[in-house]
Amino acid sequence: MTGNAILQDALLLGVLVLLVRPLGGYMARVYQGERVLPDRVLGPVERLCYRTLGIGPGDEMDWKGYAAATLAFAGLGMALLFAILVLQGVLPWNPEGRPGMSWHLALNTAVSFVTNTNWQAYGGETTLSPLSQSVGLTVQNFVSAATGMAVLAALVRGFARRSTRMLGSFWVDLVRGTLYVLLPLSLVVATVLVSQGVVQSPETSVMVTRLQPFPGVDGTRSATQDLSMGPVASQVAIKQLGTNGGGYFNANSAHPFENPTPLSSFVEMLAILLIAAALTHTFGRMVGDVRQGRALLAAMLVVFVPLVAGLHAAEQAGNPAFDAMGIDQAEGDLSAGGYLEGKEVRFGVAGSAMWAAATTAASNGSVNAMHDSLTPLGGLVPMVLIQLGEVVFGGVGSGLYGMLAFAIIAVFVAGLMVGRTPEYLGKKIEAFDMKMASLVVLVPCALVLVGTALGVSTAAGRAGILNPGPHGFSEVLYAFSSAAGNNGSAFAGLDAATPFYDVALAIAMFAGRYGVIVPVLALAGSLAAKKRIPAGAGTLPTHTPTFVGLLVAVILLVGALTFLPALALGPIVEHLQMHAAG
Amino acid sequence: MKMLARTAILLALMTVLTGIAYPLAVTGIAGLAFPGRAGGSLVERDGQVVGSALVGQCFEDPAFFRGRPSATGPFPCNATASGGSNLGPANPALLEAVRSRVDALRAQDPGHPDPVPVDLVTASASGLDPDISPAAALWQVRRVARERGLDEPVVRALVEALVQPRQLGFLGEPRVNVLDLNLALEALPR
What we know:
By secondary structure, chain A is mainly alpha-helical. Helices cover 63% and strands 4% of the residues of chain A.
């Protein structure tokens, strides 16, 4: 890596770490029901929401009530979004006259946005009306993110409280998370993005006269260029902050109208990681020991930083087949060089590599470079980051509740070594808790492996593959990893707009989300009911570098044992073949 | 029943708040604070809009600077269907496409002594990349100057004047906006 690439990456992570404490502390106040600054403006809206809902700000639910509310809210959200997408053709604000989606594409898209995945089997600018984008997708971008944060808040209360069945109210958590965290941050980020050139226009299309005519449809020379537009900045801001990732345009954040400058890219990457990272501090605050949150953040960074460096190195090394063709891939003053297929010049290898790692570490899934065109080892990194369980930052809320499940497994492993009953944050970890934590870790793994096996062993699955050889296998493996991990990025050459992939991936997304949320809430209920035992001489401290090391080892071990054989069949063998041929 | 009713109410409230009020608020702020940028950073020449500064146009005339190859369908630089090739690095289709781009560039400028910069022969992620590296612009100076009957140093100076350094000095990579460059080129006396 060059000095400048290191500087860019270090600055991004530096700004991120600096923001963890203020934002994390702020979010702790939000979820503890304390007054926060935007209350002056949004307080009346909050109280109006409670009045309409017929609830009070101090209402409480047990874990089953919380889970039921979460599932009901998701179910209705899916039904509404499905209806909007299927009926798009007859709904208003559809100036281009886009027809409704097929049932399977609408099902896939509805599940995708409600589960905070934002897998997109459609091209935004060619498929959706502005109404579907705003009233359909943007709404779920907010509330699916707020749902993840709410479930995390319930789990953290499970650790923080003692001898109670109550975990807080899903309604209150959802309203407060949306109003006080997601909306204000989105307004700020959207405004910054517009200042860089991200469009936010009531127009959906602007026709311009090209400087030079160029072959258009059917090879006839066209003197004009039709520019797709729309309310883009508002959607991009929340798609990053809420780790949703669904682009307004097909090319997502590689599109110049979604991500026009290196600074907009920096802000968007920061937004991708921001809330997930800051929630570690929220957790520390709420359990009364900020060192605990710091340890989890440290574990995330320990996994993340070497993977960024690896991804960068793989892309900078270029394509060995290009050397014989008289192509200059070297890094110099006049060109950053590297492997630029599927990348944008303004971001270069450095800005594309950091983004690819950030968007898959956090379960965001927006892209500023095409992952299908990454080099084999470069493409391995995003896949691994998803397969580690989306716990390195992870989705907003979902990343940290996944990480807490790994922390429980780590103290259990340590307990086995020394022969003591494991405990975490003063809560004794018993058989039921271990079962739930194991489910949280294993459900996505099983979905990825079973789904991939199904994809490559059926004709319907193989029909969607674009690239031949091991790369084609990687496309399928990536698709199911992305769906089960609720990431949403893709090796996009895979033609996933087929009934098989629409339905199979919808199942993976649904089970990858709620097959995890229900055990998390059950775990929260079990933890809340326990007494808090004071730390003794035999208690494993969970804020130390030793514990960080143990936690990282557990995460890497589970990931490696589960996925190494599959990765060997895809990117690893592709890498070996490419260099043997070159 | 009560839970279902609450679910519906909450979804309705959130739809109004985040699906309608929020995008309208951003549109309002954007229109007031940055009207040109919110509207697509359109570029005018002699009162006519000739494109967006942010969206790449394809140039194939050898007398113009070329931008990044575009893999949008059904035709290149289609700003209503953005996207990349999604071809893997070892895919024969990719290697074939790259080789034919190298050949096309070399056919328009036989005997060029330098290897072709990688961004001139690889498709961008969006298919609408507005920029090329300074190296890619300088590589084309020889051809463009000859086609227009201009002195190479004049064209080279034009490129060098239009190189955008890293944003704030360290973000992104140095680049040249191809539409800007070709507009400036057209303004030169032939």
